[in-house]
Write a structure and sequence with these properties.
Mean pLDDT of chain B: 66
Number of strands of chain A: 23
Low-confidence stretches of chain A: none
Radius of gyration of chain B: 18 Å
Low-confidence stretches of chain B: 1-10, 18-62
Oligomer: heterodimer
CATH topology of one domain in chain B: Ubiquitin-like (UB roll)
Organism (chain B): Arachis hypogaea
Distance between the termini of chain B: 34 Å
GO cellular component, one term (chain B): nucleus
Subunit structure (chain B): Homodimers and heterodimers.
Largest sheet of chain B: 5 strands, mixed
CATH class of one domain in chain A: Alpha Beta
Number of strands of chain B: 5
Largest interface: A-B, 53 and 41 residues
Radius of gyration of chain A: 25 Å
Mean pLDDT of chain A: 93
Subcellular location (chain B): Nucleus
CATH architecture of one domain in chain A: Alpha-Beta Horseshoe
Helix content of chain B: 25-40%
Largest sheet of chain A: 21 strands, mixed
CATH superfamily of one domain in chain B: Phosphatidylinositol 3-kinase Catalytic Subunit, Chain A, domain 1
Distance between the termini of chain A: 46 Å
Structural class of chain B: alpha+beta
Keywords (chain B): Auxin signaling pathway, Nucleus, Repressor, Transcription, Transcription regulation
Shape of chain A: globular
Strand content of chain A: 15-25%
Order of helices and strands of chain B: HHEEHHEEHEH
CATH class of one domain in chain B: Alpha Beta
Structural class of chain A: alpha/beta
Chain lengths: ~575, ~190
């Protein structure tokens, strides 16, 4: 390859898209590093504190698309106190200063101020796509700036963000000249929107393929909007509540009948079950269905609906579908690849889904590779069966509602069941455990889970050995998050070099002490070891022997961060 | 602490290490800590203490922060429409009443925060834990018309029986309690 001129190598590199492959290319030799860095347009940064924006801009002058992730994953479950960090403003500021031709920005678990959105909207004339997932601190004012100033905007995708709705007219801020929208998702906004303005926006966006509405959009507006966008591929219904006027409902059904291209359906943030029949015309073509926010739909209605969805590849649903309903899914959705079953809010009801539902799915859906399953109980026998039926799992996340529940049939821990999963699923990359578990399960994981990259552990294990099995065995481990386990200093300190091969480690309510964290921080200068000290006054230094409530460590080239709040100690 | 009749035992969490005997009344220090963690739910700086005995503000089933692992956004937004329960809230000295949706909150700590936000009266969280020492005391009228101190019964029971809320000045609260005690004494005398 040394004899090829640079332009040829550049051209070949154009075909290499994935950032992992690109990273690999850059390590081959100096000239490949140089060519790769000059041609790289998309960069993924899994931890925004692992590197400074300046260094990023210096290395990749052609940067057009940036993905950033901020808070640790357990922030989703209220384990990270407010104000921890993950501010995007310094990044946007640096990108603006560096005159980067930014076109795409994707953020997850970051703090996004209106100020940063405003700067974003003004500093990058070619800006096309903004995707915000699980972010917070911005309001509809920031969205108004994006709408008003990004003349080439194609995508505005807001997923599960906490947005303060200032009841301004942000939608009206899209100028009449804006006709380039391809994707608009504002399902997470809580406030009212002007449906007339939305209709006109949709009418002048011929390329609109994806539209996800919030709950303020009623049935009649939905009908008018969808009527103007028969080319839609992905639809998020806001509210589907009974309209007293029967003609509106009939109109909606007719409109849905004309939507020949919709393959993805979601939303139903407010729904009257019998209104679901309006969706029946599009069900046979659906490949993706998300009913996980549609509270209050009885299992029987869900089952009726699912029978029409023979082409489903992705299904997100609530556990009110029940084991029986999952049996129907297994018989109907033979193409199913991803399943997520979420717990409904009903406390004290009869167990909604158990191991039986999962076994049925594994028997009927051989292509299943991604699972998130909240259930009331699980057995070893079931897991062993699932492992045999579905050897292709890439993501396997089990959340038993009673976190330390053993196998109800045998009263044994679930070690053997999960052991079967990791032994059978050679391509497993992500695993979340629950139920009663001893150190044995970690022995199995260390032995068999060769491709494992992310592991989430809660209320499991018996001794430091458990954690050590994992650290020693899983060579490809990148993220390890542990809560409420009896893992302590020996486990933490036995192989300190391991952490530089990983993105991050989270340990909360374990047996690790302040002193051990200090030792670790001293030995590994390229790790930031953060301890969260929420309860003592900020200037009070905890004892070395004191147990650490929460610790988050990550590799970094950026050194100690300067934006940590008072309660975070970087050792 | 489990109320067998209400079927909560299915979802009851045992917080001991695997293999430990299932004890309903646990004196495990960690478990008490976890219960107070529930109050920390919103990341507020609240004092953690280990007085496990008088946990008036926790629910009957031992709940733990962050389990089951459902993201907070999803938790807030998956509420069934049928669980909307708006009740009036009055505060002594405030010119008008407010309304609050009990169904929106998962427990006393969230309610305390919501009340604080509504009326700007800080210390509601502390009042729930230690009503003896706070300026404002939350009380509620139950289905039988009696005025009760907020925090004594499990959250679900409170949600079902609460008709309206009142944030009362502590001095007034003691006055009412004194009156009830006097009424009871009179009743006893007349029996």
């Amino acid at each position: 390859m040394n004899y090829f001129p640079d332009e040829v190598i550049e051209h070949i590199f154009e075909y290499v898209g994935s950032h992992r492959d690109r990273n690999a290319l850059s390590l081959v030799c100096r000239s490949w590093y140089r060519i790769e860095r000059c041609t790289r347009e998309k960069v993924f940064i899994g931890n925004c504190y692992s590197i400074t924006p300046e260094r990023l801009i210096q290395r990749f002058p052609s940067l057009k698309s940036l993905t950033l992730k901020g808070k640790p994953h357990f922030a989703d479950f209220s384990l990270v106190p407010h104000g921890w960090g993950g501010f995007v403003y310094p990044w946007i500021e640096a990108l603006a200063k560096g005159k980067v031709g930014l076109e795409e920005l994707r953020l997850k678990r970051m703090v996004v101020s209106d100020e940063s959105l405003e700067l974003l909207s003004r500093a990058f004339p070619n800006f096309k796509s903004l995707v915000l997932v699980s972010c917070e601190e911005f309001t509809t004012d920031g969205l108004a700036a994006i709408a008003a100033n990004c003349k080439r905007l194609r995508e505005l995708d807001l997923q599960e963000n906490e947005v303060d709705d200032h009841k301004g007219q942000w939608l009206s801020c899209f100028p009449d000249s804006c006709t380039s929208l391809v994707s608009l998702n504002f399902a997470c906004l809580k406030g009212e929107i002007n449906t007339g303005v939305l209709e006109r926006l949709v009418a002048r966006s011929p390329n609109l393929k994806s539209l996800r509405l919030n709950r303020s959009v009623p049935l009649d507006a939905l009908q008018r909007i969808v009527a103007r966008a028969p080319q839609l591929v992905d639809l998020g219904v806001g509210s589907l509540v009974h309209d007293p006027a029967m003609e509106t409902f009939a109109k909606l059904m007719t409109t849905m009948n004309k939507c020949k291209s919709i393959t993805s359906l979601s939303g139903f943030l407010e729904v009257t079950p019998r209104c679901l029949t309006a969706m029946y015309p599009i069900l046979p073509k659906l490949t993706s269905l998300n009913l996980s926010y549609a509270a209050g739909i009885p299992g029987s209605d869900l089952i009726k609906l699912i029978r029409h969805c023979k082409k489903l590849q992705r299904l997100w649903i609530m556990d009110s579908i029940g084991d029986k309903g999952l049996g129907v899914v297994a018989n109907t959705c033979k193409e199913l690849q991803e399943l997520r079953v979420f717990p409904s809010d009903n406390i004290g009801q009869h167990a909604a889904v158990t191991e039986k539902g999962l076994v049925a799915i594994s028997m009927g859906c051989p292509k299943l590779h991604s699972l998130l399953y909240f259930c009331h109980q699980m057995t070893n026998a079931a897991l062993i069966t699932v492992a045999k039926n579905c050897p292709n799992f890439i993501r396997f996340r089990l959340a038993i509602l009673d976190a330390t529940k053993p196998d109800p049939d045998t009263n044994q821990p679930l070690d053997e069941g999960f052991g079967a999963i990791v032994q059978s699923c050679r391509r497993l990359r992500r695993l979340s455990l629950s139920g009663q578990l001893t150190d044995k399960v970690f022995l199995y994981i260390g032995m068999y889970a060769e491709q494992l990259e992310m592991l989430s552990i809660a209320f499991a294990g018996e001794s430091d050995k458990g954690m050590l099995y994992v650290l020693n065995g899983c060579k490809k481990l990148r993220k390890l998050e542990i809560r409420d386990c009896p893992f302590g200093n020996t486990a933490l300190l036995t192989d300190v070099g391991k952490y530089e091969t990983m993105r991050s480690l989270w340990m909360s309510s374990c047996e690790v002490t302040v002193g051990a964290c200090k030792v670790l921080a001293m030995k590994m200068p390229r790790l930031n070891v953060e301890i969260f000290n929420e309860n003592e006054p900020a200037d009070c230094e905890p004892d070395d022997v004191q147990k650490v409530e929460k610790m988050y460590l990550y590799r970094t080239l950026a050194g100690k961060r300067k934006d940590a709040p008072e309660y975070v100690w970087t050792l | 602490m489990a109320r067998k009749g209400l079927g909560f035992e299915i979802t009851e969490l045992r917080l001991g290490l695997p293999g430990e005997p299932k004890s309903l009344v646990s004196t495990n220090k960690n478990e008490k800590k976890r219960m107070f963690s529930e109050i920390d739910d919103n990341g507020e700086k609240e004092k953690k203490s280990n007085t496990g005995g008088n946990l008036k503000t926790t629910e009957s089933k031992a709940q733990v922060v962050g389990w089951p692992p459902v993201c907070s956004y999803r938790k807030k937004n998956s509420m069934n429409e049928a669980t909307k329960m708006y009740v009036k809230v009055s505060m002594d000295g405030a010119p008008f009443l407010r309304k609050i949706d009990l169904g929106m909150h998962k427990g006393y700590s969230e309610l305390a925060l919501a009340l604080e936000k509504l009326f700007g009266c800080y210390g509601m969280g502390e009042a729930l834990k230690d009503p003896e020492n706070c300026e404002h005391v939350p009380i509620y009228e139950d289905k039988e018309g009696d005025w009760m101190l907020v925090g004594d019964v499990p959250w679900e029971m409170f949600m079902e029986s609460c008709k309206r809320l009142r944030i009362m000045k502590r001095s007034d609260a003691w006055q009412i309690e004194k009156t009830y005690i006097e009424i009871d004494e009179i009743k006893e005398k007349n029996v």
